[in-house]
Write a structure and sequence with these properties.
Layout lengths: L2 H27 L16 H4 L3 E7 L2 H8 L5 E9 L8 H5 L6 E8 L6 H10 L8 E2 L2 E2 L5 E5 L2 H16 L11 E4 L3 E3 L7 H4 L4 H17 L5 H12 L1
Parallel strand pairs: 6-7
Antiparallel strand pairs: 1-3, 1-6, 2-3, 2-8, 4-5
Helix pairs in contact: 3-8, 5-6
Length: 239
């Protein structure tokens, strides 16, 4: 392992320990994390959720995937977790060893009347490197693999179609897209301190150096799908 990888890994471990300690202190004092953070967990309105759909995507660290999709117009919830492994109810520490077979993923719940599954996929493919096998930046291992766990045949077909189109258009040059396409296995929500990570810890080193650039790229490439940009436009029209 190179010196840079070791440093990146050490920084992430330290951040996780600090966050875990903060969560313990909050729980011990009876405090809870802010709840007015927008899309985060499962939709709480059964009637409103009837027409919603869910995509399960892995594109490296789930903190990154979560932060991007929480800014997508039409997304109602994002939940970080683990999928694709052989161990039931895995812990973050176990998944990090790479021996459980799980990938860090996010379940993205969205309104298909606002944003299509194909658009969800385009954001996914362009917000990480789908040509990098078992690695995203300094995060290395099968737990960081690029993967789409499809919920039905329609999602599988759509994923294959989008990959074929991106490859035909040479969006990633001569590099081959290595994204795994598999049926949805058991999904296990990640520990609470992983949820809403960027929103709760925007100044953390990993957030500044790794997550923020991905958010900025999304805001630049997908202006029409950006919730924040649509809100700004709506405010301008009211004035």
């Amino acid at each position: 392992m190179s010196l840079l990888r070791r440093i990146a890994a050490m920084i992430r471990v330290v951040v996780i320990l600090v966050v875990g300690l903060g969560l313990f202190v909050e729980l011990a004092s009876g405090q809870s994390a802010p709840s007015n953070l927008g899309p985060a967990g499962p939709d709480s309105n059964p009637e409103a959720a009837k027409h919603l759909e869910t995509a399960t995507l892995g594109g490296g660290c789930f903190w990154c995937v979560e932060a991007v999709y929480q800014r997508v117009d039409g997304v109602t919830a994002v939940l970080s977790g683990y999928a694709g492994g052989d161990v039931a109810n895995p812990s973050y520490e176990a998944v990090c060893t790479g021996r459980t077979g799980h990938a860090e993923v996010c379940q993205v719940t969205f309104d298909p009347e606002v944003i299509s599954f194909e658009q969800i996929l385009l954001i996914f493919f362009k917000s990480h490197d789908p040509t990098s096998l078992n690695r995203q930046g300094q995060d290395v291992g099968t737990q960081y693999r690029s993967v789409v766990f499809y919920h039905d045949d329609a999602q599988r077909d759509a994923t294959e179609k989008v990959i074929a189109e991106l490859s035909s258009e040479k969006v990633f040059g001569r590099k081959k897209i290595v994204t795994e396409i598999s049926p949805l296995p058991d999904f296990y929500p990640a520990e609470q301190y992983h949820q809403n990570y960027f929103r709760l810890h925007p100044e953390a080193a990993y957030c500044q150096t790794t997550i923020r650039p991905k958010i900025e790229k999304f805001e630049k490439l997908f202006k029409d799908q950006s919730r924040q940009q649509k809100e700004r436009e709506a405010k301008k029209k009211k004035k």
